[in-house]
Structures are given as structure tokens and as C-alpha cells.
Amino acid sequence: MTIAALDPRTGTALAGLLLSMADDEFVIGFSDSEWTGIAPILEEDVAMSSLAQDELGHARALYELLAGVLGDGRDADALAYDREPEAYRHARLLDHGRGDWATTIARRLLYETADAARLASIGEGWPPLAELVAKIRREERYHVMHVLAWTDRLARAGGDARSRFVAALEALAPDAPTVLAAQEGEAALLEAGILTRPMTSAAASWRAEVAGILGPLGITIALEQAADTARSRSGHSRDFRWLWGELTSVRRSDPGATW
Amino acid sequence: MSAVAAPRVPDADAVRDILRGVVDPEIPTVSIVDLGMVERIEVGPERIEVELLPTFVGCPAQELIRGAVVDALASFGRQAIVGFSFRRPWTSDRITAAGRERLAASGFAPPAEPADVRCPYCTSARVAMDSVFGPTQCRSLFYCRACRQPFEAFKLV
Questions:
Q1: Which one of A10, A61, A124, B38 has the fewest CB atoms closer than 10 angstroms to its CB?
Q2: What SS3 class is residue B130?
């Protein structure tokens, strides 16, 4: 289905939604893959690599849908790799560098829960996305299991582990709501049934969920309403520019090659 | 892939039989048919279409499996159109009873809720999940306290 099959307003908004979702999964997937070989314990080396593989797989499937919507000749790889850093539309939460293990777990917790709230907001309006999301949600269950186990472990450990984890949550909290920033053209997406609720209401249920997880552990963080997408998903950090250099290096070394 | 001679007039059953010889390279003991990956087979006068469901969205074996299916269908002498779709989510309950038995026989616990996983070697319930994530996207790591054997269990998706 190309963009021409949808009315232009809905098509443009859908492309924006797909790009946000794909870039989020792409960037967190690559960030997580940085732990391959150097995670604190062997099981986590395997876990982070597997999580990264899942997220990059989701990104690829989303870029493929986007390629169909745009219909401009770019395939999933071109969309993923052939853009300048400024053109990426991932949420600012994912602009933070890998950091230490506590930062990684804090970022995963905030991202996974926000992403779950977003996935729960996708309706049946555009079947290709609805079908993909149904499949992705079944896999994310294991991601949530993993991050909740680590959240519990770090928070209950006390000492350095807990204080680093709490500090990481507090440092990421101002940018965490950017994942659920209002989508451009949200009214059109709601009207078409591609979204079932506005992002503000997804964000409200996400904040309640995070409070329900952290409250019993004696942790409170302030999660404000995010600015609009334009501001929440642009102006990327030095950390991201470095990551972009890494993740595009092979592609740029021989443009157009088949690997 | 298979030495079975192609029938004169292929039908969906003949295609399915050929596909019983195609395996997921990450789980070489169970065919893609027993894994429940084959969603649709259509045999036309000039071409055969096969629609597959990926077990995981990012499964890196998809292209290998697609190629193996195309090769397996070559014996029919018709154009083979093979693709993956998400038209319906692949779920672990699509694995056939025979598939589950074969998984257990090769040391993989079939998909179950983590609390219901049994050791594929001694059937004990005294097992512990060591890690949600294993060597492939579809498996978790367990340890059996009864027979002291580490094993892998399929994720329930």
C-alpha cells in the first residue's frame, strides 16, 4: 500500500508515526547491542544481545511498512542507514548514551513501559500495522519480564546499586515522556482508527504504570507531559551522533553493497 | 532438500509433504510444518504460493528458510512464490503434537508458562529459569535441579 491509497493527511501522519516507532526501536536496539561482549555477567551478555536482535527486527519490519507507505524507492536499509543524524526521529530518551548498567536498566524500564503504552494505542485502522503490532506485543512480554527482574534487583540491593539506579532514573525522567509525545497529525490517525487514543492518554496510563512499579520500591520520579513531537524527537545529542557514526560505518564503507 | 519424486499434479498436500523436509536451521529436528510456520499453500497452474509466519519478527533465519522452501519446491517445476507475513501472529500453540515431542526428544522443553516448564530429560518440575534469553530469540535457559542438567525451553509467545 503506498501513501496514495490513504488520504494525504492520514498518509503523512501514518508515515510520521511509523518513522518514530522504527527509529525508537532501531536506536535502542543498537544501544543495547553495545553490551555484547562486555555485560556484567554472561547471561546478560546473551540477554542484551537477544533483546537488541528483537528490537532491530521490530525496527526492520516497521521500516518495511514505512517504505511501502512512502513508495519513494527507498527500502528498509536505505531508511535505516542513509540519513544524516538530524533526520532521525527517535525520542530524546534514547539520545542518552549507554552509560553504566544502572542507566541501561533505567532506560529500558522507562522505554519498554512507554512503548507498551504506545503499542496498546494502535488500532485496526491500518491492518499491516495492526498485524505487526499484535506480533510484537507477544514478544515484548519477555522484555518486560527481564527489565522488571533487574529493576527489583537493583532497587532492593541497596548501596551503590540502588543509588546509581535511582540517580539514573532521575537523570532520564525529564526526557522519558518524549516517547509518548503527541504525534503530528494525531487527529487524522484517531479518525482513521490507526490510533485508538491520543498520546496524552497513553502517557497518563504509562505514568500510572511506572508509579505502580517504582512506588513499592520506595522510588518516586517526576514524569511531566512531553513537548510536541517536533521538539521531543529532534536536536539529537553528541552521544547519538557518536552512535550514528558507529551504526552506519559499515554501510558507509561501501554504499550500495549487499552484505 | 527432499528426494521424494514430484507428483504429476501437485496439490497442497503434496506441497506440504515436501515442506516436511524443510527445517529451521536453529531448530534442525523439527520441520517448518510441525513448527506451524506454514500458513497458506496455493497451487495454481503455473505457480505455487507459500505464505510463512515468522516465529519471531526479527528471526535471522527467515531468508535461509525462504530459500530452502524455494529449493524444495523446485522439483514441481513451477514458479514458487514464497514470503513471510504477519497476517496472523505465529504463536507457540501452532507447534503440532509431533513437533512438541520431537523438541523434547532433542532436549528442548516445548513452550509453556515459565512455571509449567518440565525438564525434557527427566520430566521433573524442579527446574529454575537461569535466563529469560538464550542462544536464539525463541529460547530461554533453564536448569533442572533433579537431574542437574541445563536445558533450553521454548518461549511461549
A1: A124
A2: strand
Query: Is position A259 within any domain?
Result: no
Whether residue A43 and residue B137 make contact (CB cut-off 8 A), yes or no, is no
Cβ of residue A50 closer than 8 Å to a chain B Cβ: yes
- CB contact under 8 Å between A53 and B58, yes or no, is yes
For chain B, which residues make up each domain, given as ranges? 12-92, 108-154
Please answer whether residues B133 and B140 qualify as being in contact, where contact means their C-beta atoms are separated by less than 8 angstroms.
yes
What CA–CA distance (Å, rounded) separates A245 from A59?
18
| Per-residue pLDDT in tens (0 to 9) along chain B, 157 residues | 555 555 556 899 999 999 999 998 888 899 999 999 999 999 998 999 999 999 999 988 999 999 999 999 999 999 999 999 999 999 999 999 999 999 999 899 999 988 899 999 999 999 999 889 988 888 999 999 999 999 999 998 8
Total domains in chain A come to 1
CB A197 within 8 A of CB A121: yes
Q: Flag whether A200 is in a domain.
A: yes
In the CATH hierarchy, which top-level class contains the domain B12-92? Answer: alpha beta
CATH number where A68 lies: 1.20.1260.10
Cell of residue B131, nine digits: 535466563
Q: Do A135 and B141 touch (CB under 8 A)?
A: no
Chain B contact present for A146, CB below 8 A: yes
Residue A168's Cβ-count burial label (10 Å; 0-12, 13-18, 19+) is buried
